[in-house]
Amino acid sequence: MKEIFDIAKMNQLAPEKGxxxxxxxxxxxxxxxxxxxxxxxxxxxxxxxxxxxNLLAVKLSELIPAIKSDDFKVGLGxxxxxxxxxxxxxxxxxxxxxxxxxxxxYTGGDFEQIITLINTGLISNHQIQxxxxxxxxxxxxxxxxxxxSSWIVSKCKTLDIMEKNDNDxxxxxxxxxxxxxxxxxxxxxxxxxx
Length: 194
Hints:
This protein has helices at about 5-10, 60-65, 110-120, 140-145, 160-165, 170-175, 180-185, and strands at about 20-25, 35-45, 45-50, 55-60, 75, 80-90, 100, 105, 130-140, 150-155. By secondary structure, the chain is of the alpha+beta class. Strand 7 (about 100) and strand 8 (about 105) form a beta hairpin. The longest helix has 9 residues, at about 110-120. About 35% of the residues are buried.
């Protein structure tokens, strides 16, 4: 099946900040198997982003005792710096130091301010996502992986990234693209089972 679909040739977009990366269906890497990565930066020096659909069975309040709400889940953002907490959000200028990824989506910002807003009930879990670790690529590495059909580059609405980021997100985003992508969405994890 993998030979039938040349994912590199299916890509019509080059990677850039604000787009998503959809992993090829047979990737066995524990961080990237059936993953969707929100690309937060892409320059000639390298790229970084977060896997948005790999939720862990841990709540933010378990990792950071200052958080008084159990409403915020944590995802595994990637293999780089897995002991650090990172985040994307829709709060823009409300969080000082935020960096714009694309219209309506930001990363970083004053974490103490975020803790205060969470504890006072002024942030909902649909406005911010937390991750342990991030996904990073050195200069040219992401382009090489795309050329080797490891990733489908796609647009995605901020609302989908923030609200549809469950374990079914990989499949649903491919199905929504239709055509060959819809077929890829239904590939089994183990192609020998087909």
